[in-house]
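Think of the structure tokens as a kind of shorthand, similar to the way a musician reads notation: each symbol stands for something richer, in this case the local conformation of the backbone. In the example below we present two proteins back to back. Begin with the first one, reading the sequence and then the tokens, and try to describe in your own words what changes along the chain.
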Amino acid sequence: MKHLSRIKSPGDLARFSNEELIELAAEIRTFLIEKVSKSGGHLGPNLGIVELSIALHRVFESPQDVMVYDTGHQSYVHKILTGRAAGFEKLRQRGGIAGYPSRAESEHDVIENSHASTALSWADGIARGFALQNQSNRTVVAIVGDGALTGGMSWEALNNIAASDDLKLVIVVNDNERSYSPTIGGVATYLSTLRATKGYEKFLDWGKQVLEKTPVVGNPIYETLHGVKKGIKDIVAPQGMFEDLGLKYLGPVDGHDIPALERALMQAKKFSGPVLVHAITEKGRGHAPALNDEAEKFHAVGVVDPETG
């Protein structure tokens, strides 16, 4: 594994070309299948989050930027990229690494969690702490999915987050289609591309200001156009429910396309307030036995044959 052996910390990823990143992703999947099959663990979820984890660590600077995973069992690739690959020889065993984030293991693990729907509350609190300490150069990234958005605690946290438009907080929804199905089509792709462009936010503010200053007809025109735009969005894409909460939305993005993920994450990082990035991934990706497991996609396995599952 020529590329994986080069990873001692997330900063090492900056030296990889796009072609090398693709090869690295393949090596990580081979590594996960080999190690998790020997010890047991959450194989399917981590096979699906490889490219997303790589992109996150190339765009954000952990531990300066804080990453929190919901649920914690999606953090295997994060652990590999933060220099803990050797610990997988004894995954979930004495002398090895934990199957969930562990502050005792690394400065890159800020919280410890092992059940769903908790990370958004953590992220909200950490981001507010940074704001109170005037640490505007730090971003909190919450990676949620694999059922985490089915819990009410997540939605309570989203409601609180959306009420503060100055939090440096990026929410990444890892949608592996095990919770809900998004609508993806040509118009949805166009709208998400428009929203992801650098000048979109400034253009909206400018247009609103101009129309609202126009005597008599300006405000009605703005309200009409805003209503039409919102109606189209609610029909063709799932961002409506998030934007109704007050969150900016980017996506859906192919969760296995590293350059596309990096573009969306870079744009999210530049926003002044909370923003949600919607990534579509495939649970169990790259491992036929996992993909053929219709019920669980090898969500959690015991000791299994790495070839046949």
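Once you have a description of the first chain, move to the second and do the same.
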Amino acid sequence: MAGSVWVCTVCGWIYDESEGASDLGIAPGTAFGDIPEGFVCPECQAGKDAFEQMGV
């Protein structure tokens, strides 16, 4: 299952859509856009607006 990869521009934490983030309750295959707006980076607490899609 391929998906986009997103990186936090503050700390570099990576969210891979194909892997999800099970420790955060986000299932594999969950698109970044489908993550609730209240999501914050688990490393630095930056908001979703601090993430950029890699390879774009």
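Compare your description with these statements about the second chain. Strands lie at 5-8, 14-16, 51-53.
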